[in-house]
Every structure is written in C-alpha cells, then in structure tokens.
Design a protein that fits this description.
This protein is of the alpha/beta class. The protein has two domains: about 5-115, ATPase, nucleotide binding domain (Nucleotidyltransferase, domain 5); about 115-300, Nucleotidyltransferase, domain 5 (2-Layer Sandwich), CATH 3.30.420.150. Helices cover about 50% and strands about 25% of the residues.
C-alpha cells in the first residue's frame, strides 16, 4: 500500500507526564521527527492511590492537551492525523470513560487506551528501529528489553531475535515510591523491597528463557538515557551503550541520594528526580540476573513505535 506524505502527531498520556512527537511521513517506512514536547502531570499518583483521576489532574491534562492542540494547528495537522494513546494510569482508572469523554469534548482528541501487550509490541518496533544494524547480536543472541514506567514495568524476552515472552508487571516508579512511603521505609528498605520482587520475577522468567544466557540487555527509558548520555558510548544517533560495570557503579553511587540531591547533583527537574532512583535500581537488579556485558540504551518509546506503524500503513 502506498503511503501518503503528510504530517502526523503522536501524543502519549502516561503516568508521570504527557509527551508528544510530531513527524513527517515521507513514504513507505520512512519518517522524520520535526518536533517534540512534554509536560509533567501527576496522573499516576491519583490512580495508583485511589483508583480515580482527580479533578485537579483532569484539569492539568486538559491544559496540556489544549496547548498541544494549538501547536498542532500551527503545523496544520488534522485531527485524523493526531494519534493519542494512554498507558497504565488510564488503564487502571475507574473513571477513565469520563476522562476520555471530557478530553474529546474539549480538544477533539480521541484517546486509545493501549493494553500492556500492545505497549510491548510498539516498544519492540521502536527499539529495533533505534538499534538499526549496529547491534547484529540483537537478532542472533538472547535478549531482554525492559522499560520501567510510572505505573508498570514492561519486559520482553527474545530468543535469537524472536519474541519468547512478554510481561507487563504492576511495578512502576510511582507504585514503588508509594510502597516505600507507606512502610516509612529508607533507601535500604527500597533496595530490599525491589530485590525481592526482581528475584521472584526472574524465577518465573527463567522458566521461559534462562536469563544466564541473555547476552543483550536493552533498557528503554529516560532514566537510563541520563546515564547513557553521561557515561555511554554512542552506537548511532538513536542509541548508546554503557559498560555493565560502569552502569552498576553509577547506580550504586546515587542510590542513597535524596530527591533534592538528585535535582542538585544530577541537574534534573524535580519531576524526573522523584522516580530516577527506583527506576535505575530496578534496571540494575534485573541486569545482575543476566550475563549481559553492556546496557544498550535506545532513544525509543511507544511514540516512535506508533510512527513506525503509521509509516508502514498499519
């Protein structure tokens, strides 16, 4: 099928923020990003605490989406070429239908709530695109692809490049933080809590693919990109590699930082600092269960996965 050249946008409503990518679809399987935008929202803190999206969070999301709508009008993009997807926070919200209706009435955006297995598929497409042919072992060896979000952790196991198992765990940085706060726990408690969860999860994963034979460990997430841009080696413009030992040492160095220390020493916004320690620690614990010698960090998200779908006519 011949693909029409046009401008498109993909907006992702996540647990910790709303992010948008604008791209030009040129021809079959060819696209080029022309703009990106993102704003933090605390959607996940509402849903994972009470099961409901609060009025305040609804209004905050509306403000962001109205702003995005104005930006997209400036690009001349029709609503039919604007694809809005939502992940774990909206999946779990008991009042999600009300939220979806209000967003549609105020902006004209139709929200598609993506299930965990589809989220994994889109991420796989984005990771494969980012790696290109610069890591041929991704197609030949056993791999783990993992992303820790605000409300879930998505894991893919690949046997010689072919999907062996897919899991969506109810384990995200917001949920982890809430668990630690409820237990009035310290960073030591956080480490023990995560270590137990990761070990139990890996017992199950080992029945599907022996993790000691996993040679490629791929982390798709902004937390890991922070480490990659500081200590990694650029594989291509969309991907970095970090030595296993360097990554583990970095996580061990910062795992006892407070949120304020993360902001000050890592020079990141407060919204990112809140989840960086749980996210990086989770990656480290899973990495230690594998035989991978490096951490591959692509600049990939389900937004790029959606663009790949659109460019291929799916």
């Amino acid at each position: 099928m011949k693909i029409k050249q046009r401008m498109v946008a993909v907006i992702e409503i996540g647990s910790t923020g709303i992010r948008m990518v604008v791209a030009e679809i040129r021809k079959n399987d060819d696209w080029h990003v022309v703009d990106r935008a993102g704003k933090p929202v605390s959607l996940g803190r509402d849903v994972f605490t009470s099961g409901l999206i609060s009025r305040e969070s609804l209004l905050a999301c509306l403000a962001v989406l109205r702003n995005f709508h104005e930006l997209l009008q400036g690009w001349g993009i029709e609503n039919s070429d604007i694809h809005v997807i939502a992940t774990s926070a909206l999946r779990e919200a008991r009042n999600r239908d009300m939220f979806i209706d209000r967003i549609y009435m105020q902006t004209g955006f139709k929200i598609n709530v993506v299930e965990g297995i589809e989220e994994n598929r889109l991420m796989y497409l984005a990771v494969r695109f980012a790696l290109k042919d610069d890591r041929p072992q991704f197609k030949r060896s056993n791999s783990m692809v993992i992303e820790v979000g605000g409300g879930s952790t998505e894991i893919m196991l690949l046997r010689r490049g072919k999907m062996a198992a897919v899991h969506s765990l109810r384990l995200g940085t917001i949920i982890i933080d809430q668990q630690v706060r409820q237990a009035m726990g310290t960073n030591r408690y956080l480490h023990r809590f995560l270590d137990e969860i990761v070990r139990n999860t890996c017992e199950s994963l080992n029945s599907e693919l022996n993790l000691q034979y996993v040679r490629t460990f791929v982390v798709a997430g902004s937390d890991a990109r922070l480490a990659a841009t500081r200590f990694g080696v650029e594989i291509n413009q969309d991907c970095w590699s970090i030595d296993r030992k360097v990554f583990i040492e970095f996580v061990e160095k910062i795992e006892n930082y407070t949120i304020e220390e993360c902001v000050q020493k890592l020079r990141i916004p407060f919204a990112e600092a809140e989840g960086i320690i749980p996210g990086l620690l989770t990656y480290k614990l899973f990495l230690e269960q594998t035989a991978a010698t490096e951490v591959v960090v692509p600049n990939a998200s389900i937004r790029e996965g959606m663009l790949i779908n659109l460019a291929s006519g799916v």
